[in-house]
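Appendix C: a fully annotated inverse folding record. The material below is reproduced so that readers can follow the format used throughout the book. The structure is listed first as C-alpha cells, followed by the designed sequence.
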C-alpha cells in the first residue's frame, strides 16, 4: 500500500508532530510505503497558530510536492491531520484539500486535535460550513483517538470512522523507586507546553493551597516551553511565593525528560486546552509507573486506569490540591501503571492498528457489498 503524508514532524515538539514522526518512521515495517511531505509551517511553540506569509508559501510548496508525488505514483491514499477549531488553520486546510484531494485515491483524516465540528455549528458562518463540508467532508477514513472524540468526523459525514489511540516508544523499565521519606517534599512533575490552557497556573495555585494546609509538602518541577513571553512572565509572578519549592528546567530532550520522570513521585497535568485530544505526556507517566493527577477533560478519563489516578474538574485548584495531597500519601503503583501502558499504549500497538486501519481504504466497496449478500 502507498501512503502520501502531508503533515508536520518536529520541530516543534508536541503530541501531533511526534505521532506523525512515529507514523513516518514506523509504518514501512508494516508494509506501508510512506511518502512524507513535511508541512513545516511552525518553527517553535510560540509560532504555532500564528499567521506568517512564509507559512502560506510553505503550504503551497508542500501541496505542489504532494501533487507531483501522487501523479507519479498513481492511486495512493492521502493522509492529512485536520485543523483544530481555529479559523486561520481551517483556511489552510481548504487550500490543502483543493490542491491535493482531487487526485485518485482515498482521503485519510487523522483527528489529533478536537473541536472543529462544534466550532462549525456554533461559530462558523454559512459559507465556512458549506466549504468545509465540501472539502473535508466524506473522508474515506477518519481516525479518532477515543469514542468521545468522534464528533468531528461525524459532523463531516466521514464514510468510515475508526478509534485509534496514540502510542509511544517504550522508554524501558524504570529503576526501582526508593521508599519516599514522608518528612520530605513529594516531587511533582509537570511536563508539556507551559501555558494557562494546559493548566500550569492552576497547578501553581494548587501547590500554594496544599502548602497552606501542609507547609513544604511538595516540590514542583516544570519542564517545557512557553508559548509567549507574557505567559512566562505570569508564571514567574505566580510562582514567586513558592520560592525554592518550584523550579523551571525548560525544554528537555528525550534523555533528560526520562531522568525527570524517573525522579518524580507524582505526575500532574491539569489541562483544559480546548483542542486537547489524548496527551502523550500521560502515556509517558504511565510508562514510568507514576501516579497521575489530572483533569476530567476530553479523552483523558477514558485513557487512564482507575487505580493510582486522580481526576478532578478543571479550574478547581482547591480540588487539585486535595488530589495531590491524597496522591502524596497513597501507595505507589508498584508496576500496575506501567503494565497498563504496555497493554495499551506502546508504539508497536499503535502502528499495527494504524496499518490495519489504513488497509481498509484498499477494499473494493462493491466486492464487500457482494460478499455480504
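Designed amino acids, in order:
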Amino acid at each position: 500500500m502507498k501512503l502520501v503524508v502531508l503533515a508536520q514532524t518536529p520541530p516543534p515538539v508536541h503530541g501531533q508532530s511526534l505521532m506523525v514522526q512515529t507514523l513516518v518512521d514506523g509504518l514501512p515495517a508494516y508494509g506501508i510505503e510512506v511518502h512524507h511531505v513535511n508541512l513545516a509551517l511552525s518553527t517553535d511553540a510560540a509560532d504555532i497558530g500564528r499567521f506568517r506569509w512564509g507559512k502560506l508559501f510553505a503550504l503551497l510548496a508542500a501541496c505542489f510536492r504532494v501533487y507531483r508525488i501522487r501523479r507519479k505514483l498513481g492511486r495512493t491514499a492521502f493522509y492529512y491531520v485536520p485543523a483544530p477549531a481555529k479559523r486561520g488553520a481551517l483556511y489552510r486546510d481548504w487550500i490543502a484539500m483543493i490542491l491535493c484531494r482531487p487526485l485518485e485515491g482515498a482521503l485519510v483524516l487523522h483527528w489529533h486535535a478536537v473541536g472543529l465540528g462544534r466550532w462549525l455549528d456554533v461559530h462558523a458562518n454559512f459559507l465556512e460550513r458549506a466549504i468545509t463540508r465540501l472539502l473535508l467532508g466524506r473522508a474515506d477514513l477518519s481516525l479518532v483517538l477515543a469514542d468521545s472524540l468522534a464528533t468531528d468526523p461525524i459532523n463531516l459525514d466521514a464514510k468510515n470512522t475508526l478509534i485509534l489511540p496514540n502510542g509511544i516508544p517504550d522508554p524501558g523499565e524504570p529503576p526501582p523507586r526508593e521508599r519516599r521519606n514522608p518528612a520530605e517534599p513529594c516531587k511533582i512533575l509537570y511536563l508539556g507546553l507551559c501555558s494557562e490552557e494546559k493548566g500550569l497556573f492552576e497547578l501553581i495555585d494548587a501547590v500554594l493551597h496544599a502548602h497552606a494546609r501542609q507547609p513544604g509538602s511538595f516540590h514542583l518541577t516544570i519542564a517545557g516551553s512557553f508559548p509567549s513571553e507574557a505567559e512566562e512572565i505570569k508564571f514567574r509572578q505566580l510562582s514567586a511565593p513558592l520560592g525554592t519549592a518550584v523550579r523551571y528546567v525548560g525544554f528537555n530532550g528525550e534523555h533528560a525528560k526520562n531522568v525527570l520522570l524517573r525522579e518524580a513521585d507524582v505526575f500532574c497535568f491539569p489541562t483544559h486546552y480546548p483542542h486537547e485530544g489524548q496527551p502523550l505526556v500521560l502515556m509517558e507517566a504511565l510508562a514510568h509507573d507514576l501516579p497521575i493527577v489530572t483533569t476530567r477533560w476530553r479523552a483523558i478519563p477514558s485513557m487512564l486506569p482507575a487505580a493510582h489516578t486522580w481526576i478532578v474538574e478543571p479550574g478547581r485548584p482547591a480540588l487539585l490540591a486535595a488530589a495531590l495531597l491524597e496522591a502524596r500519601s497513597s501507595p505507589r503503583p508498584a508496576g500496575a501503571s506501567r503494565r497498563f501502558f504496555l497493554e495499551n499504549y506502546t508504539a508497536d500497538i499503535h502502528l499495527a492498528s494504524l496499518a490495519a486501519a489504513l488497509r481498509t481504504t484498499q477494499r473494493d466497496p462493491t466486492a464487500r457489498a457482494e460478499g455480504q449478500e
